[in-house]
Amino acid sequence: MNFYQLGAFMALLWGLALGSFVNVVWYRVPLKKSIVLPPSSCPACGQFIKWYHNIPVLSYLLLRGKCAYCKAPISPLYLGVEMLFGLTSLICWLFSANHLAYYIVLYSAVALTIIASGLVVRWKQRN
Ligand SMILES: [Zn+2]
């Protein structure tokens, strides 16, 4: 694996983690919950989600979209958001002329996401 391929892999992982975080923000902020504590839990049974059940995309696929404890279905929207961010980050890496361009494009996307998150949160609060 050369440096370019390693960078692409890291960009994918970074995007997946970012998507996972955006899911947390979109879920918790409208409920006026902290985005840090307590750790993630199943909305159906309340069990805290172990770290290995909380790996973006991979855990969703391994658990077949269900809670590891009560088997309640988990919305595919979480998977979709994680994949969207992962692929966006990867595409930014692949089409950036250099590392600086990647970070500028990616952080612009992050800024837009934060703004969009704010709009989603406000929309959810009103509806
Ligand atoms: Zn559960």
Secondary-structure topology with pairs:
Elements: H1 3-28, H2 58-62, H3 76-95, H4 99-126
Helix pairs in contact: 1-3, 1-4, 3-4
Structure description:
The protein is 62% helix and 0% strand. By secondary structure, the chain is mainly α. α1 (3-28) runs antiparallel to α3 (76-95). The longest helix has 28 residues, at 99-126. The protein is globular and about 45 Å long. It starts with a helix and ends with a helix. The mean pLDDT is 85. The structure holds zinc ion.
Would you summarize the structure shown here?
With 127 residues, the chain is mainly alpha-helical. It has helices spanning 3-28, 58-62, 76-95, 99-126. The site of zinc ion has 8 residues, from loops.
**How many angstroms does the end-to-end distance come to?**
49 Å
Distinct compounds present: zinc ion
Q: What structural class results from the helix and strand content?
A: mainly alpha
Which regions contain 5 or more consecutive residues with pLDDT less than 50? Answer: none
> What oligomeric assembly is this protein in?
single chain
Total domain count: 1
Major beta sheet, specifics? none
Mean pLDDT: 85
Fraction of helical residues: 55-70%
Shape: globular
Q: Compute the number of helices.
A: 4
Query: What share of residues are in beta strands?
Result: under 5%
**Order of helical and strand elements:** HHHH
Radius of gyration: 16 Å
According to DSSP, the number of beta strands is 0
